[in-house]
Amino acid sequence: MSYGGYLRLDRLLDAQEPRSRGPDGAPLHDELLFIVQHQVSELWMKLAIHEIRAAILRVRADRLSECFKILARVKLVQRQLFEQWAVLETLTPSEYAAIRPALGTSSGFQSHQYRALEFLLGNKQAEMLDVFRHDPPAHDELEALLRAPSLYDEFLRHLARRGLPVPPDRVERDWSQPYQRHPGLVPVFRAIYADPRHWWDAYDMCEKLVDIEESFQLWRFRHLKTVERIIGHKPGTGGSSGVAFLRRALDIAFFPELIDVRGEIGT
Question: How far apart (Å, rounded) are the C-alpha atoms in residues 28 and 97?
């Protein structure tokens, strides 16, 4: 087994197929950057999905401490996703304008792995499945995730099994519906933060989830600023509203009560 054979580099390095053409008929120089940037993002997202699925299984089995290394790895994957926007920011508006026609109607909005990450972390939006009807395997995977408990849902169920007063409608509900913050969870988390020695693993899990949420929000913000820098406030490809769509996403919270409880601690 060779290095290239193990990594399937023949397939990986042959997967970049620029579609733009200059006056001489050759691909435009900057399209390779655009393709590699997004392919690498998809690889990192594949790893994040793999890890979050593993974390969900461990929470479901009440093996909370085994999640900590997993979620620490997810946080570092998120850091890679954040930092690589700096590479794309070397693409100037005029360079992007030259290759944009080659993108057609394709858009990051159509990434099924990004949508899988959102669903795994609890941002369930059933209408988003329509985007993937042309791809039955992706559609089926997302539909299964839509109807399954998220990482946060499983954590709340775990806390209920340990005797904490988690509201019943947070333990059993229609998992396909968007998560709604519940004031009844704030006392649950306040109890954990008030006695971290007793609830150490749950306490650590809370902080790991806050790490994941913060990293996701930073990634969203960096995405917004990169798009704004390159295309300003023009509509994005694939029919999205571009910067306006990305700005709205900044208001989406995965684990709202873990932020709400911070206003209660020490009062």
Answer: 11
Eight-class DSSP state of 237? G
Q: Using CA atoms, how far apart are residues 142 and 151, in angstroms rounded to an integer?
A: 15
Instruction: For residue 144, give the 3-state DSSP assignment.
Output: helix
Q: For 108, which DSSP code?
A: G
- Single pTM value for the model: 0.94
Query: What tens digit of pLDDT does each residue of 12-57 get?
Result: 999 999 999 999 999 999 999 999 999 999 999 999 999 999 999 9
172, two tokens: 């059993």
8 Å CB contact between 212 and 183:
no
Instruction: Read off the tokens for 244.
Output: 């306006």
For the chain, counts of helices (H) and of strands (E): 14, 0
Q: Is 191 helix (H, G, I), strand (E, B) or coil?
A: helix
- pLDDT(246) > 90: no
Neighbours of 84 (CB within 10 A): 19
